[in-house]
Amino acid sequence: MRRVYLSTVSKPMDEAPAAGPRRRRLALVSGNVVALGTVSLITDVSAEMVTAVLPLYLVLGLHVSPLAYGVIDGVYTGATALLRLVGGFVADRIRSRKLVAGLGYTLSAVAKLGLLLAGRSMTAIGAVIAVDRLGKGVRTAPRDALITASSPPEALGRAFGVHRTMDGIGAFLGPLAALAVLAAAGESYDAVFVTSFCVAALAVVVLVLFVRERPDGGTTEAPKVSGTTEAPKVGGKPQAPKVTVGEAAGLLRAAPVRRLVAAACLLGLATIGDGFVYLMLQRREDLSLVWFPLLAVGTSLAYLLLATPMGLLADRIGRLPVVLGGYAALGVTYALLFGPVGGWPLLVVTLALHGLFYAATDGVLVALAGPVLPVRLRTTGIALIQTGQALAYLVSSVLFGLAWQAWGPQAASRVAALGVALVVVATLLLLRKKR
Fold this sequence. Notes:
Blueprint: H1 22-25, H2 31-61, H3 66-77, H4 82-94, H5 97-118, H6 122-149, H7 156-184, H8 189-210, E1 233-234, E2 237-238, H9 245-249, H10 255-269, H11 274-285, H12 293-317, H13 319-336, H14 343-369, H15 378-407, H16 409-431
Antiparallel strand pairs: 1-2
Helix pairs in contact: 2-5, 2-7, 2-8, 2-12, 3-6, 3-15, 4-5, 4-6, 4-15, 5-6, 5-8, 6-15, 7-12, 7-14, 10-15, 10-16, 12-13, 12-14, 13-14, 13-16, 15-16
């Protein structure tokens, strides 16, 4: 997202960027992207250690209802979504994305220790999860803005693909680490939480030592967002004024930004929690509880193998087709959960499609938004889009938990598959190429 905003006469959002010289296409990603990927890799090992055992712990250990789990799962991703906007705005205003991202990573690390004190109290567990998601909400937009500022415009898909691949490696290793700790510690969840905290603390150290702040580049002029002012000149050089609340609020006055936010909300509404997918697979196939965390490993393996290829494909054919293809894979995943196929073929195909969904959408959606957002408000804009998606996900998790409880998992999964199909069509209409 290093360029400038997308005006009404610039390239459409779904158009693939220009190819550029072959030598540039083959260039490696920057060191800063690799450093941020390393931080995400280590953090995801920590996060997925907890995530892999949390559905099992809550639903099968504490015997919470599907609706209660849906609320907790929604909190895990969406309840602190509005703080993404705060984090993005503060990062733009103080011009220190690394500092704000570091605060977010630190909060998530500390939250792992909070799980030790929560015990069996659902209120305490929900509060600790909220703190952990607060950290994620604060750090995500500044981190993605740093990746954008560290990459040329035509290679954003590749940069985010490489970052998400490293992120996926962490997500792949996390459940395996959780299994190893559980086996070594006599199935002690406390041991998982302590180990998770130590790993998360290491990620903060790597961020401090190796990630560098990067100023945004870009020379092309873009349309102004309402509320902006001309940059004053000091010593003959223009000095950018601080971002204001009114300027940030003006983002939604730009039609391309509004369309992207609306599309992100729709896409979030069509997504149910991973834990629901894994619980339905476990129930249908009667998997041993010992093997339950490995379902997340299957998704993560597909994700890490496909994230970079999907990023490269997005740079080549356009980012919107790749995003919509990812959601199509998600719809098929939901449809298969109670389809005619069963056994190991079902597990392999479902988890592969689930990983493909994440590989085709996670970083590519942010890369799609890059050309639309003004340089000065890029972190805020990314946070706005992610906030809309996360809030919609919160609603989706609660509704799916309610549907499961009222109609059963089979009917709920079929409704989810239909919802994805409708959302893909609506998103295409919102973001398709304007002729």
